[in-house]
Specification:
Length: 231
Amino acid sequence: MAHLEFEFCKTRLWATGAGCLIWPDQNLLVVSDLHLGKSDRLNRKGAGFLPPYETQDTLTRLDQEITTYAPKTVICLGDSFDDLEAAGSLLEAEKQWLATLQAGRNWIWIEGNHDPGPVEFGGTHLAEVICDPLRFRHIATPQGGGEISGHYHPKAQLKGTARPAFLVDETRIILPAFGTYTGGLYSHDAQLVALMKQDAKAILTGAVPLAIPMPRTHKNRTQKNRAMWRG
């Protein structure tokens, strides 16, 4: 897939069509909301059976991004695992796959609301990371200020078709969810409208990433838009 280059806080960044953020000058890849093991948690909670294939699919796509961009540092912006029990339930082959992706890299796990404590995987576990002029954390703060976060699983509509999207304004970037079994919160949801400045852009993911003015209203806006999001 292609990527779209843009400037944020005087920093050159790339938004990839798969939903990762690349800081090329730092050889850094950022990904958010992998939610590995989500089918395990939902099945465990009696929410209905989901085929347990999403971890393999998510890791396959992440492997492709890492192969393409060969980052020296990877930052996972939280909710990398659907909960701590799900993290422990990964198959041995999946755990080894993660270890292979981490090998030779500086790998940083940011704490999320689904995975607030340390997990038994390699890498560094932090609440947030500051790499001037950018700050990486799980959930956006009202002040922004060079902030890159995830949590909300944003998506946006174009001509009736919804796609996961990066939301970008002059103070913050909110990444789309990367996990296979993650829903999305429309950019016109009140929470995202309140966070993002009036001139915010949405960068739609896909084979050819596309930047559009962030949709802030929808004629059929209902609670169903929120129902697909489980942040």
